[in-house]
Amino acid sequence: MIIILKQTILPSEKDNIKQILEDKGFIVKEIVGKEDTVLGAVGKVYMDPREVEVLPGVASVVPISKPYKLASRELKKEDTIVQVGKVKIGGNRVVLMAGPCAIESREQIMSIAKEVRESGALILRGGAFKPRTSPYSFQGLGEEGLKYLQEAGKAYDMPVTTEVVSPKDVEMMTHYIDMFQIGARNMQNFELLKEVGKTGMPVLLKRGLCATIEEWLMAAEYLMANGTDQVVLCERGIRTYERATRNTLDCSAIPVVQKLTHLPVIGDPSHATGIRDMVAPMSLALVASGASGLIVEVHNHPEKALSDGPQSLYPKQFEKLVRDIQILCPVVGKSLEKAPRIIPQTIKDESAQPSVKSSNIIAFQGERGAFSELAVRRTFDEEVKVLPCQTFAQAFDSVASGLAKYGVLPVENTLGGTIFDTLDLLASHPSLTVVGEQTVRIIHNLIGFEGVELKDIKKVYSHPQGLLQCKNYLEQNLPQAEAIPFFDTAGAVSFVKAQKDKSLAAIAGAPAAVFNNLCLLAEGIESNPLNYTRFYVISREENAEQFRSSSKLNCASILFSVSNNPGALFNVLKILSDNGLNMKKLESRPIPGKPWEYSFFVELELTDEEQLKKVTPSLKEATVSFRVLGLFSAAH
Ligand code: PEP
Ligand code: MN
What we know:
Oligomer: single chain
Number of strands: 30
Distance between the termini: 45 Å
Number of helices: 21
Structural class: alpha/beta
Shape: globular
Bound molecules: phosphoenolpyruvate, manganese (II) ion
Radius of gyration: 27 Å
């Protein structure tokens, strides 16, 4: 049962409730949600819910209807974020795990680890105990393999996962690995589940070849009831009558499972298909279905692999796949987790490690629930605090003054073009620099009061761009309604809410509806779905490295002015061209206080940071003023 606690509950009352339940024989878990705190009580015992309902501090008691209890969404509404070493899985992230099917030698795992890490994998996989269909096939290197796996993980700064096949190996394995993998063939090996659950460590739980979704979640329940709450589910294809592929990938399981459980679910396109050429399309299908990540088999010499060679990607193929996934992620409202950049040992400073901590405050322009807040949430941990600012200038100033550590500001929209405010404010804030980039797909929704019919809506509020982008929908579905421009989309929603007038509605992103407790009356109403906004993450110089160290820097923004001579701009562009620097964007902006003089804003694609350093002296020579606005990692 779920025991919903009163907000006014005293710590002593909470302890008392826990004690009573534990004395009865229940396992009790406390879950602190955004809206309320609940206790989950599960076990083989029975207690009349009315007995619990009368205890001091209890608001209500709800039985959990599903056979799996700790794993169910009924118990915990918010997504569980599983932490494997430094890597977080779940929420808005897509996390890639890669490596060979089996660890074959020290050299093999070292070499593959290096390649997958450079391409963007965050977790290293590799089997040391292989549950092979034939007893004559390679069975794995055992503990020796674990040693190589651990060494490769340490060398390339990746947590590692490997399959456990026997309860007797569990304790030994805890010394080498960061996450257990329970294989498809062992999904219902209950003794193994119990033993692994007791370690409290993260577990990757593959779906059994013939398991229903409910059986799969019951296996997760075994792990959780025994002591771990860090379970990641993995859809890896099920056995059907179809023989064209090794298994049949059940993509539809992903959204089904996400409704039933709070645990993250990822996909394994390699075992699902068994065929190399099908791994990339099915990877995209899994991400499109909502998977929180992928586990992919990659081998440097698949033709010589001791197991699963035919389904293993070449490192180059994996690299291409990562780029494709990165492009797809914003379409489904997610972002690909980036591999921390490998910092040369000499400048490695523990205090400047990748994780951008939750104590940070992040500024954005707009009201709570704005698309800019979505960009913040996509870039930082769930726990960061946000500072909504009325204007762009206020957001910049709050970062410059140290009130906020980072700011997330829009620079460009695929339909509306460049957002000049951000460029001009960067120019006038020399202490600030661009450290990152994020893209958000702009999905507009009609937001209003519950139960309202479209024909009864008289006024629709939104940012002028929002109204324009939903013109077709408004004309066809709300011909009677007046479209009223508002300074900001999320602000329009809170305005409508405050009016308490059911004939009003607003157009904004879904989080604004959640934040204001209003309803989505219609979703995805924009005329053009290719509507994306690109944001810059800005910070003061002293906080730049901490953010940047978590990614490969392959973009630069520069700002310069040139003398008023023929060919002056051309000369600068020629330097870029001669040095193989691809210019992605060029804007000219009037220089404040200097009528008819302009500065130029350029975005460049880099192969590495050194490329820009090398040309900087010649650029300085060819310009009147020159500034690198920032170095960052491309969001797409
Ligand atoms: C594996 O990941 O190497 C593996 C054996 O997977 P599964 O258990 O899904 O077959
Ligand atoms: Mn395999």
